[in-house]
Automatic annotation (TrEMBL):
<dbReference type="InterPro" id="IPR004843">
    <property type="entry name" value="Calcineurin-like_PHP"/>
</dbReference>
<dbReference type="InterPro" id="IPR008963">
    <property type="entry name" value="Purple_acid_Pase-like_N"/>
</dbReference>
<dbReference type="InterPro" id="IPR039331">
    <property type="entry name" value="PAPs-like"/>
</dbReference>
<dbReference type="GO" id="GO:0046872">
    <property type="term" value="F:metal ion binding"/>
</dbReference>
<keyword id="KW-0732">Signal</keyword>
<feature type="domain" description="Calcineurin-like phosphoesterase">
    <location>
        <begin position="134"/>
        <end position="312"/>
    </location>
</feature>
<dbReference type="InterPro" id="IPR029052">
    <property type="entry name" value="Metallo-depent_PP-like"/>
</dbReference>
<protein>
    <recommendedName>
        <fullName>Calcineurin-like phosphoesterase domain-containing protein</fullName>
    </recommendedName>
</protein>
<dbReference type="Pfam" id="PF00149">
    <property type="entry name" value="Metallophos"/>
</dbReference>
<dbReference type="GO" id="GO:0003993">
    <property type="term" value="F:acid phosphatase activity"/>
</dbReference>
Length: 721
């Protein structure tokens, strides 16, 4: 052990106490200074809003309320200063007195913090020289992919960027805006102004209105317009839960007035989030299609940008052929590849180009020419040039009146009376009247598909359709093999009176006949009750006649694909109804997750359903391929019946057994029944008796869904002794 004196020498400081304290104070001062610098780093770095030909807005966010100021001027000379009147956390300062088409530098400051110097360019007043904008959207959820898109946009060097909506997974959550939007886009937004469109993932959040300077144009609203060079750009709010959109709404009155006021603009551009012309078959047609497009067409809009669908899609020019034969139309662009999970798309008769992938678009403006380019990490993969004053060929043009014809035709079929099948025989007459709004005369041809098992006779219709005519179609239908073959498909083909193609969407396929069974279904009395294990191997099931003549839904006929079968057996033991089903031809091998009982998400899974009718009550029992259960009384899932069931499954098929006690229905027993199955791809469904529930889809005409509680579609249920 060392002597105590040595120990004292080791502990004694060679530095005088006064100097030691000086260094300690200095050291902790440095630490304190470092913390202040860290605290002074902005939460959101400066970004540009509402650049015009004579001004710009600089915004940023700090953690504390402080007075912000911006120094600005010509590059290298920050001689002008603008200062906030009161402390803020989200800072917004307007730079005024700028010259058009000029480069300026600026620097944001607050407290003792001076942020880095950035630059931007003001807008030109006219279109005397070319300029470029970038458009992208749906950048939520994946900051890395969003950042990659931003790097591509920076290389493209646009004058401005337009975002088609969905900046964060949930715009109501403050903590998502910085990591999902502002951080990945910071390097771009400090030098290029962003003009936002509100999307559905913003949920009309106050954060959207705080982060973007919308009051500059239209106080309190998410729709506005602005001018740049020779273009007038309109941004609308299509998020229907929070925005009115019909002809009597404030937004529509403003839109029409705005377009009339800027009628002389060389280029008119419109953007909003939800696409009126989608390439996703699962998407409903948004009602704005039928209200907004005619206004755009009437006021000479040149191109429309949308998001919402996470891919790239370009339509042909959508418009109307005028009486003299001239064609004018508007291409609709979906640019939703900014980072959100990608989605597939399906070909449409109005679709010119589809691509699934992350991307952005650029638009180059010249005096009389506009060039669109779609760009991914490999370069330009699609382009379109619009020349002012140039006509469109039929191959470049999708007729909007043809789309209205499809809508009116679907409505006529919805209103028609179903044909009844009795003892396997069908006989009846179809009569449809469909208003049209074509401005040119058209020849009409009628063809049939899937009609081998049907006798379709005495078809009468307008073979020459004059402008404003109502198409009248009458046919006699007869068949003795309904249920074992697909429903007939009618095809209307339009052509010019002198021959030739009038527009790209000249063919309309539709399903004119609604067919329903009336014969009863019989549940055999089983000698023993089958075990509910999902195996369906008991001999007792052999005592029941198999039911296989399910009607494929309209959607399945359109999509085609796998051979699909649904084999059902019904039986009873006097006090219990037994149902078994073998479901094959599954289009998606992915099994749905096991859900809680009566979780409404079950309706989007692979399902088999039994509907039972008793007087004015409809009891529904739904089992999924993963073993989930939903039961309801007159569409009310709060009702829970007594049921024993079991499910087994593989990648290509699954089976279900149900034991439904009859005592739960009161003194009576169900007198009617229907059976149905559908899959989680949303496109495939089969019913024992079609319910013909209308759904809003454009790819199938008409598009039918399933209404499990539809009494009119039920057939009598007979329990044998």
């Amino acid at each position: 052990m060392p002597p105590s004196g040595d120990h004292n020498l080791i502990m004694e400081s060679p530095i005088p106490k006064s100097i030691y304290m000086f260094f300690l104070i200095g050291f902790f001062s440095l630490l304190s200074c470092g913390r202040r610098e860290s605290a002074s780093v902005p939460l959101v770095y400066p970004y540009l809003q509402n650049v015009t030909s004579d001004g710009a807005t600089v915004m940023w966010e700090t953690g504390d309320s402080v007075i912000g100021k911006v120094r600005y001027g010509a590059p290298g000379s920050l001689e002008q200063l603008v200062t906030e009147q009161k402390p803020e956390t989200i800072h917004k300062l307007r730079l005024l007195g700028l010259n058009a088409d000029s480069t300026y530098s600026y620097r944001a400051e607050y407290s003792s913090t001076k942020l880095g110097e950035s630059h931007f360019r003001t807008f030109p007043k006219d279109g005397s020289r070319p300029w470029r904008m970038a458009v992208y959207g749906d950048s939520r959820s994946n900051p890395e992919k969003h950042a990659a898109i931003i790097r591509g946009i920076i290389k493209a060097n646009p004058l401005l960027v337009m975002h088609t909506g969905d900046y964060a997974t949930d715009g109501r959550i403050y903590g998502q805006w910085k990591p999902q939007f502002f951080d990945p886009a910071a390097e771009l937004l400090k030098s290029v102004p962003l003009f936002p469109v509100i999307g559905n993932h913003e949920y009309n959040s106050p954060w959207y209105y705080r982060y973007f300077d919308l009051d500059f144009y239209h106080a309190g609203q998410a729709y506005y317009s602005f001018d740049v060079a020779n273009a007038h750009i309109v941004l609308l709010n299509s998020d229907a839960p929070y925005a009115d959109w019909d002809m009597n709404s404030g937004q529509m009155r403003w839109l029409i007035e705005d377009l009339e006021k800027h009628a002389s603009a060389t280029w008119k551009i419109v953007s909003f989030h939800h696409p009126p012309f989608s390439a996703r078959n699962l998407r409903p047609v948004i009602p704005q299609r039928w209200v907004w497009h005619p206004v755009f067409e009437q006021h000479g809009v040149d191109i429309v940008f949308n998001g919402h669908d996470h891919h790239y899609f370009r339509t042909y020019a959508v418009g109307t052929t005028e009486p003299r034969g001239t064609r004018t139309g508007i291409p609709y662009i979906i640019t939703g590849g900014g980072g959100a999970p990608l989605e597939g798309a399906e070909p449409q008769d109005y679709g010119a180009f589809i691509r699934k992938g992350n991307h952005f678009t650029t638009v180059d403006f010249e005096a009389d020419r506009l060039t669109l380019r779609a760009i991914d990490d490999s370069g330009v993969f699609d382009s379109l040039t619009i020349h002012k004053g140039f006509g469109l060929s039929p191959e470049q043009f999708a007729s909007y009146p043809a789309m209205i014809f499809k809508l009116n035709l679907a409505n006529a079929i919805y209103k028609s009376t179903p044909f009844s099948i009795r003892k396997g025989m069908l006989k009846g007459r179809l009569s449809l009247e469909v208003p049209t709004y074509f401005k040119i005369p058209l020849n009409v041809e009628l063809h049939w598909k899937n009609a081998d098992s049907y006798a379709i006779n005495h078809c009468r219709f307008n073979r020459l359709l004059k402008p404003g005519d109502t198409l009248k179609l009458k046919c006699d239908l007869e068949s003795s093999s309904v249920g074992s073959s697909p429903t007939p498909i009618a095809q209307v083909l339009f052509s010019l009176p002198g021959g030739g193609k009038p527009f790209i969407n000249d063919t309309v396929n539709f399903f004119p006949f609604k067919i329903r069974k009336t014969d009863p279904l019989t549940a055999a009395h089983l000698s023993q009750s089958p075990v509910m294990d999902g195996a369906i191997g008991e001999l007792e099931w052999k005592e029941s006649k198999p039911l296989m003549d399910f009607f494929p839904s309209v959607r399945q006929i359109v999509t085609g694909g796998l051979e699909r079968t649904t084999l059902v057996r019904l039986g009873h033991s006097g006090d219990t109804l037994f149902v078994s089903a073998v479901v094959t031809g599954i289009t998606s091998p992915t099994r749905s997750e096991k859900r809680k009982r009566d979780d409404l998400s079950i309706m989007g899974d692979d399902c088999f359903a039994v509907s039972l009718g008793l007087e004015k009550k409809v009891f529904v029992f739904v089992a999924t391929s993963s073993g989930s259960l939903l039961d309801a009384l007159n569409k009310n899932p709060e009702w829970n019946g007594g049921i024993d069931y079991s499910v087994q499954g593989s990648e290509s098929a699954w089976t279900v057994e149900m034991a439904i006690p009859l005592s739960q229905f009161g003194p009576g027993v169900p007198k009617a029944i229907n059976l149905s199955r559908w899959e989680n791809n949303g496109l495939s469904a089969d019913e024992w008796n079609p319910t013909y529930s209308p759904i809003n889809r454009s790819y199938s005409l008409p598009a039918f869904g399933i209404d499990m509680a539809e009494p009119a579609a039920m057939v009598p249920l007979v329990l044998t002794h």
